[in-house]
Amino acid sequence: MSNLRNCSKCGRVFPYMGRNICPRCLEKEEDEYQVVRRYVRDHPGAGVIEVVEETGVEEDKILQFLRDGRLQAKGLTASLRCERCGQSINSGRFCESCINEVNAEIQGHLPQKAKSEEPKRPPRGKVKDKMHIKDRGFF
Ligand SMILES: [Zn+2]
Ligand SMILES: [Zn+2]
């Protein structure tokens, strides 16, 4: 009765444990997080582009760490924007006023289908070559 899933990153089948990426990719993500965290600690105020170039970690991932609230760096948060109005924010996906508006909408129109479940933007199809090269280290 094992609950198997395909990893959303590498496509491997793995036993599902609450995340839709496999332990191997999770570990890789953790490594990348540590690298980024160390870099911004040593270079406070470094912008996203600089961190991407110096650490080799994808911009999307760095932004994801910021959105998750795991990473806090002045230079990096400047590039994080509210998905609704575009205002700059420190963590999460929306600015405070949008969060309030969204909450009010949800409370006001509860029977309506929640729109937040739909992806806000189409996934970017490109997979960077260097990720494949790195993958080899795990075989
Ligand atoms: Zn994987
Ligand atoms: Zn907003």
TrEMBL record:
Could you list this entry's UniProt keywords, alphabetically sorted: Cell projection, Cilium, Flagellum
Which lineage ranks, top first, belong to the organism behind this chain?
Answer: Bacteria, Bacillati, Bacillota, Clostridia, Eubacteriales
InterPro entries, sorted: Flagellar_operon_YvyF
Region called Disordered, residue ranges: 109-139
Which protein, by its recorded name, is this? Answer: Flagellar protein
Q: Which domain of life is it from?
A: Bacteria
Query: Which intervals carry biased composition (Basic and acidic residues)?
Result: 114-139
